[in-house]
Amino acid sequence: MEAPRFTFVTPWYGHFAGGAEVAARTLAEQLARRGFDVEVLTTCCRAPFDNWWRNTLPAGAEQLHGVTVRRFPVNTDGEDRYHAMNARLIERKELSPAEQRQFVTNTINSDALVNHVRAHSAGRVVVGLPFTQGLIDAACHAAAGRFVLMPCLHDEPQAFWETTAEMFGAASGYCFLSEAEKSLAIRLFGSRLGRKLVEAPVAGVGCELPIGLEPSFGNQSSLDDVRARYQLPERYVVYVGRKDPGKNLSEVIRYVREHRTAGGREELLFLGGGDASLVPQEAGFRDLGFLPEQDKYLVMAQAAGLVNLSVNESFSIVVMEAWLTGIPVIVSARSPVTSGHCRRSGGGAAVGASEEFHAVLRIWEHESARQRMAKAGRQFVRREYAWDAVIDRFLEGAA
Fold first, then answer.
1. For residue 293, what are the CA distances in angstroms to 63, 66, 297, 299, 353?
2. Assigned domain for 208 exists
């Protein structure tokens, strides 16, 4: 039997490390390493923080880590129509089905890319993500009968739109990143789609640390060097990722501030990019920004734990990375995905109030309890999200 050939469609690729981009990029690269024919179709827009109606990268094909990447120009009209509908959403106004279609069509999109899908994807499995962008909606309809949707679905207004139901209906298959995401899809579309949806796989995202890094966690000289270089406090927790209000940072900061007021010793260190102005200019908070990859993991490995109170998550790679570095996690009780990871693994705690946050950090003062949670999390990642296991589940549903 001939091996399947894959075409991934995603709005941004290679210059941005958001959740959907990481899922698409790492999965494409891992399939290519295993000998599969893989290509990626993406736009000339560099990142979601750029103007979606302006081309910032050259069109054409290139090779990135063994994967053929083809970039297409974005549609340059529709910006005003998008912002008009988005303003209504910000004001919490409902959109009619026609207005929903106007919103979706005028998010980042590329007629040139969609036409390529229509003309050149025969005999290929077309995998698109995330569901929120018009590019994915258009590609789904253009590749009817061979389109696998990796939705990155959240409990947010757009998930309940008729346009989203139509996209799910047009897809030939689905592949989910978490059990909670699949459960939400079944709740929303199960009565329409039946077994096709219920039997779809939950592949997840493969998580492995760079080769050769793990011995550094036991090398006291390496740990001491990083601690001195970044002047790390005696005891701290880390937030890793983009500093963005949508990641529920205000709650993270409030919990840490109230914990310290109650006598807690932990400081909060931010690792990653985003809006540095969100970091309080007061004792107990510090932004380390982007660090070299090895340094980032060595800083994480010496933390008491990771704090990630983001609610709208499809998978959360940083939670898995924390467990692989040997630390437990605190997540939001309002996030079905991350709280589900903690429940299934035993590697962390889901909290919904500052008192619960404070209680978990007090428990982590007992090193045996903290290490027990961290070990459970690491075993969970190695069992469920080693790349071989993820690829097997993906192929089960997509091939």
1. 23, 21, 7, 10, 32
2. no
Residue entry with tokens 């909290």: 351
Domain annotation covers residue 393: no
* Residue 278 and residue 179 share a domain: no
Is 146 inside a domain boundary?
Answer: yes
Residues 237 and 121 in one domain: no
Alpha helix (H) residue ranges in the chain: 19-33, 79-90, 97-105, 111-120, 134-142, 162-170, 179-193, 195-198, 220-229, 249-261, 293-301, 317-325, 336-345, 354-364, 367-384, 387-398
Residue 373: inside a domain: yes
- Compute the distance between CA of residue 303 and CA of residue 299 in angstroms, rounded to an integer: 7
Percent of the chain with pLDDT over 70: 99
CATH, residue 183: 3.40.50.11930
Residue 186 sits in the same domain as residue 232: no
Q: Which helix (H) or strand (E) holds 271?
A: strand 267-271
Q: Tokens representing 195?
A: 């077994």
Count of structural domains within the chain: 2
| pLDDT band of 314, cuts 50, 70, 90 | confident
| H or E stretch covering 234 | none
CA 136 to each of CA 164, 187, 241, 263: distance values in angstroms, whole numbers, following the listed order? 11, 22, 25, 49
Q: What is the pLDDT of residue 75?
A: 98
* 273 and 332 part of one domain: yes
Query: What is the DSSP code string of 42-90?
Result: EES---TTS-TTS--S--EEEEETTEEEEEEPPP-S-HHHHHHHHHHHH
173-174/67-72 β-pairing: unpaired
Which CATH number goes with the domain that contains 363? 3.40.50.2000
The residue range of the domain holding 190 is 6-202
Taking CB atoms within 8 Å and a gap of at least 24, the contacts of 281-285 are 284/256, 284/257, 284/260, 285/253, 285/256
Spatial distance between the Cα atoms of 398 and 329, rounded to a whole number of angstroms? 32
Q: What is the pLDDT of residues 279-298, one digit of tens each?
A: 999 999 999 999 999 999 99
With cut-offs at 50, 70 and 90, classify the pLDDT of residue 1. Answer: low
User: What pLDDT was estimated at residue 395?
Assistant: 94
What are the tokens at 236?
């701290």
Contact 319, 341 (CB under 8 A): yes
Q: What angle do CA 314, 386, 151 make, to 5 degrees?
A: 25
What CA–CA distance (Å, rounded) separates 375 from 387?
20
